[in-house]
Amino acid sequence: MAETKNFIEQIIDGELEAGKVTAVQTRFPPEPNGYLHIGHAKSMFVNFGTAEKYGGKCNLFFDDTNPSKEKTEFVQAIRADIHWMGYEWAKEVYASDFFETIYEYALRLIREGKAYVCDLSPEQIRDTRGTLTEAGKESPFRNRSVEENLKLFTEMRQGKYADGEKCLRAKIDMASPNINMRDPVIYRILRATHHRTGDAWCIYPMYDYAHPICDYLQGVTHSLCTLEFEDHRPLYDWVGVSLGFAPKPRQIEFARLNLTNLVMSKRYLKKLVEDGAVHGWDDPRMPTLAGLRNRGIPVAAIKDFCERVGIAKSNSECEISYFEACVREYLNAHAPRAMAVLDPLKVTLVNYEGSEEVDFDINQLDPQAGARKIVFGKTLYVEKSDFALDPPPKYYRFKIGGYVRLKNAYIVRCDEAVQDERGEVVELRCTYFPESRSGSDTSGIKAKGVVHWVNAETAADAVVKQYDYLLNDAEYAGQDFSERMNYDSEHVFSAKAEPYLNEVADGSAFQLMRTGYYKKCTEQGKLCLSEIVSLKDNFNK
Ligand code: ATP
Ligand code: MG
Q1: Engineered SS bond to 278: which of 122, 283, 408, 470, CB 3.0-4.6 Å?
Q2: For residue 536, what are the contacts with CB-CB under 8 A and spacing of at least 6?
């Protein structure tokens, strides 16, 4: 079957055929003002993925034109996240590497009458910009002489003016139907210490002006970005044409990844961290890549999800359950199985003595995975929810007089439920059938239900963590995030687990049988099982 190409690949194929480009160069352009999130995984998938497909290169480009919000901490976290995703950048580049050249290009625009120093305040500029239906008003400073503009702009750089007192604007068209083309500000005065250039500059270029220049200077052929930049493309092209870039990089926009029950904007995520609503940027409930990594989500599942969602030209919202289905599918195929009982109820096998080993399939879907031994014994734990004192029809788990198979071991009959003084069931007393052992069952007894269990004599105590979404459902969408916050999204309790889980490496993912996928870790010397995704599939295919 021929591979179907996405619309970006179709464009590139056409250009390659027409000889317009010979090699593909892209860049992944995060602003170092926060941690990357799953939306950025999509952007990486597009930028690194497209370069890879064409044997081209992708740079890591730090868009650091906004010094007040950017930090070296974020630069380091971004690098680590990209590596975790398995991508390698050709070069690491910063907008600030080009500040001098970007400044010289501005002088050139001034000399050619394409930019002017404007004394209007940011508010006045906004107020004279016009609307979608009305043209803007030309600035009274629009027709300054080249000499005067050069002098003023040089003085801006020298620090002669206060923040906001003047700015540099591109001289384009105040009547353009595209508001971005109405003499946009391309330089502002800002006294802020930059995380790389320190206090060397007190003027900073605006993103829309700097980005096409940085793309060009890196040799980017395709500047792939999200749809909100579509209206900025005419300005992107104006900069390239005005400065005579050849070959001029081409901007192509694709749809953002949006997921239900999640908010990805860094601004919001930062607020969650600052307000202490989560434990940090890498909290397992966070949609940051650091959070997903900490949660135990495999990279392969993230990439598979990006692949399946595809690259579209129009925005839409994707169900979070679709992402979870991809994670579940991957883990189902790859995660070893283990048993843990989250809400333990003691079972005593009245006619069993001693102990023995039984075989346990590491992953029944993967015959190569083999089996390991687990120890069976007289006292066990099963889930409280697997017993019913007053069972509904067709109930095949523990009920008085009912037969149940203990996973990979024996069939037992539940004879008695021991209750405490408050009437709560605290123990099940059962009879086991020696001939019913899994793999060599000659008992002839039928047991429809199979339940997981843990040997009470060897069980390890485990701290279990389960998670809900940070944001309440889609029905609240449109409401303010603070009103949608779910403040009860982390549930911690103790459970009983196979002792085997104490021996496996921290960070490994397991399917806890009949429960879900969990990551093993050690917290304060204790075994901890942290939920990756439940077994229940809510995704409606
Ligand atoms: P945020 O609003 O979350 O802060 P951003 O767009 O400001 O995101 P940048 O660091 O500027 O974050 O983004 C780097 C690149 O990642 C940009 O090209 C941006 O378009 C892309 N990107 C950001 N969010 C998404 C998303 N949800 N889906 C796809 N691409 C995204
Ligand atoms: Mg941004």
Answers
A1: 283
A2: 516
Query: The whole model's pTM is what?
Result: 0.92
Ligand 1 atom with minimal separation from the 42 CA: 29
Which residue is catalytic, options 42, 166, 182, 266?
266
Residue in the structure block whose two tokens are 């991508």: 87
- From atom 30 of ligand 1, which residue's Cα is the shortest distance away? 43
Contact (Cβ atoms closer than 8 angstroms) between residue 522 and residue 506 = yes
> In angstroms, what is the span from residue 40 Cα to ligand 1's centroid?
6
Ligand 1 neighbourhood includes 30 CB (under 6 angstroms) = yes
In ligand 1, the atom with minimum distance to the C-alpha of 34 is 4
219 DSSP 8-state letter: T
Q: How far apart are CA 506 and CA 530, in angstroms?
A: 11
Q: Which residues pair with 454 in a beta bridge?
A: 381
User: CA-based Rg of the chain, rounded to a whole angstrom?
Assistant: 31
Evaluate the omega torsion of the peptide bond into residue 247 and state whether it is cis, within 30 degrees of 0.
yes
The per-residue pLDDT for range 1-14, each reduced to its tens digit, is 457 899 999 999 99
Q: pLDDT per residue over 75-125, tens digit each? A: 999 999 999 999 999 999 999 999 999 999 999 999 999 999 999 999 999
